[in-house]
Structures are given as structure tokens and as C-alpha cells.
Amino acid sequence: MNLKLNLACSWSGGKDSCYAFMQAQQNATPKVLVNMMNENGIISRSHGLPIELLKQQADALGLPIIAIPASWKDYETIFVGNVRKIRLTYHVNAMVFGDIDLQAHRDWEEMVCEKSGIKAILPLWQRDRKEVLLEMLAGGMQAMIVSCNLVMGEEFLGKMLDVNLVPELEARGVDVCGENGEFHTIVLNCAAFNKPVKLPKYSKTRHEDYWFIQWE
Fold this sequence. Notes:
- This protein is of the alpha/beta class.
- The chain contains 6 helices and 9 strands.
- The termini are far apart.
- α3 packs across α4 (103-116).
- Strands 3-2-1-4-5 form a 5-stranded parallel β-sheet, with helices on both faces. Strands 7-6-9-8 form a 4-stranded antiparallel β-sheet, with no helix packed on it.
- The chain is globular, with a radius of gyration of 17 Å.
């Protein structure tokens, strides 16, 4: 008999982690979202999202979210230590990740999950990137670009990711899924949400080689 999967979800707030969650929940039970914050615990490390927006998403999914502050120096140690606690508290035996084809990411995720006593699940693994994006959009996912590299530039911040934007990204040589880190998104609504996310006012700011939404 197959072991029932109870899931923690590595939750960035963006489209890939959300879609991986949606795929995984078809055959398993999600219990908790897990987000890694920067060391001061104010915004998420990868997408620059404030905890208030992440909590809105969690509430829309009807799940708790654990926000974990960490620096890059102690990231792995803190991640493993917290996932071990989450495993016991929420009785999870697997964790969902949204990576599509970056092997180094998968290797790290499988390694830290093994250390934490759970299994790593990657529902989008080895899928065609553009196919995955178009599938998300066809399913009604609404996602907005919240950070991007200099190749894309400031004008892409705040744009909704839709089929009309795909050729613009391709024309700039940008992967349409942003799998190489060209851009990040926030999911505002999708089939799994029971209500949309409400955004606060924002401005735009540049930090080194990236543009970011600056939330008020």
C-alpha cells in the first residue's frame, strides 16, 4: 500500500511554486507553506515579498505559512532545522518544489529533504518551460512580475504575465518561465485560491543588477 503523502510546500509566492503546489495536491494533502525570508524577516529572500502578502496567499489557500528568516551563510542549516520541526508539527512526509529543470536546484532540494527526513517532490520536473507557462495561464492563474533583470528592465515591473507578454520576453532572449532567474512573480489569483490577493501601493527600485517592486 502506498504511503499517503502529507505535504509541505516550498512557497515563494510566485507562479512556479504555486503551480507545483496545485499539481501535487491532486494526489496528496497539503498541510503547510514554507517561505524563506531574508535575515531581518521583513521580505522573502527570492521574490522580495512582504510577509503580509504571503499571508494573504496562505489564507486564500486555507493553510498556515511558516516564514523563516535566514542569511545566505546559514541558509541550509536553518532550512533543515526548521523543516525537521515542521515535519513533526504538521506530520508531513514530503515537500513540494517548483523547479523545472535546474539540476543543481534539484540536487540541493533532495539533499536537504533527506537530511530533514522527508521526500522532495518536483511535479514540474523536465516539463517544457513554455508549455508549463501556457498551461498555468490557460488555467486562469494571474501573476504579476515583481522583480526582473536589467535585460528586461524597469518597464516590465508590475506587468501581468499573460500570453501577450510571451513574445515580448522571447524577443529579449528571456526564458518565458524565468527559470534562469530572469524574473520573479507574485500570484494574485488562481483556481486554488478562494479569494484574490489585494496589493498595496508600490514603487520601483533597483538593487545591483535587478529591478524590484518596493512595497509601501
